[in-house]
Amino acid sequence: MTICCTHPSHPATAGTTGAACTAARVAALATAVLLALPAAAQDKPVELKFAHWLPATHPLFRTGFEPWAKSVEAASNGSIKVAFFPAQQLGKAADHYDMARDGIADMTWVNPGYQAGRFPLYAAGELPFLTGKPGGASAALDAWYRPYVAKEMADVKFCFAHLHVGALHSKKAITEPGQIKGMKIRPANGTVAQTMSLLGATNVQVSAPEARDALEKGVADAITFPWNSIISFGIDKAVKFHTDFRLYAANFVWVINPGWYGKLAPAQKQVIDSHCNNEWAAKVGAAWGDEEDSGREKLAQTAGHTIVKLTPEQLAAWKAAVEPIYANWIGSANKAGVNGAQALDALRKELVARGGAN
């Protein structure tokens, strides 16, 4: 680069006219600015195929998927474009973890509980009556689980975890755990299935998109589901009674195909990394979880629906009845090579610290 100057130390430029000097300075400055631009501006455009199994109009798209995608696109200066494949377009709900692992999709939204026993440590977040506010609980679960990712989810790139809290919705009022015996119930995940079996129910294993049909055909009598999704999936047409407790949590992970991530430019990897963190876990957990909880009030104001309230004694009976599920989880964690009691204690402390405990 030629330096425009009439100083004696730059004899090669002596005598250069003022106009030419100014023009050269401008050109040099423009070159410097271009060189200083973020690498992402020069990165090769890539598409991120993001698969999930929710309806395209589900609230999580507006509160989680879309804001995340827009933020990624903006941070990458448009070099990463997110394309969504909703409603099981690329595979069944239970297959979404393997779809990311195998590259059928570049990124997927996964309910690990749909494959009971495959991710025993992560299932801690599903334990009954453990979690409260979904934002704080999501941040707690994400932070607690990250040290275990390499043990259970090493074949994908883990992005973050979050959860929602659900209740029991049925064709008749349910107040006592003894009423569960003999019922056919669609559980939200493997831990809820264990809980229903413990209480004497028969589990009806269908995914969320198939749940309404199972209820309407009498295949199931009740369902464990978050409040607002009862409405968004149309399940409010099939069940009219809603037991008012925070029975369980359904836990989710966003995971990425390692091969897709590995081909990104360094600046693009930084963008993805900055969107796969505890901050986003808390943000999505709060935005969607609070939206789900808002469904309770909607159902309470809907004709024909009953919010079934429990007395303190009834709630205590439920908690006592499901206590063996905690012992089961501790045993599973021990078999996985982790001190289950210590790990559960650490999760409980994380939940309290972040305002996510029940």
Task: Describe, in plain words, how this protein is organized in 3D.
By secondary structure, the chain is an alpha/beta fold. It is 44% helix and 16% strand. The chain is built from 15 helices and 9 strands. Strands 1, 2, 3, 4, 5, 6, 7, 8 and 9 form a 9-stranded mixed sheet that branches. Strand 5, helix 6 and strand 6 form a beta-alpha-beta unit.
Question: How is the secondary structure organized here?
Answer:
Layout: H1 18-36, E1 46-51, H2 59-75, E2 80-85, H3 96-102, E3 107-110, H4 134-145, H5 149-152, E4 157-170, E5 184-186, H6 190-198, E6 202-203, H7 208-216, E7 222-225, H8 227-232, E8 241-256, H9 258-262, H10 266-274, H11 278-293, H12 295-300, E9 306-308, H13 312-321, H14 323-335, H15 340-353
Parallel strand pairs: 1-2, 1-3, 5-6, 5-7, 8-9
Antiparallel strand pairs: 3-8, 4-7, 4-8
Helix pairs in contact: 2-11, 4-11, 4-15, 14-15
Considering the chains and any ligands shown, give keywords for the structure.
alpha/beta; nine-stranded mixed sheet; 9 strands; 44% helix; globular
Low-confidence stretches: 1-24, 26-41
User: Whole-number average pLDDT?
Assistant: 90
Q: What's the number of extended β-strand segments?
A: 9
Residue fraction in strands: 15-25%
Number of helices: 15
Rg, please?
Answer: 26 Å
The helix content is: 40-55%
Q: What's the order of the H and E elements? A: HEHEHEHHEEHEHEHEHHHHEHHH
Alpha-beta content class: alpha/beta
Largest sheet: 9 strands, mixed
- How far apart are the first and last residues' alpha carbons, in Å? 65 Å
Could you say which overall geometry the principal axes of the C-alpha atoms support?
globular
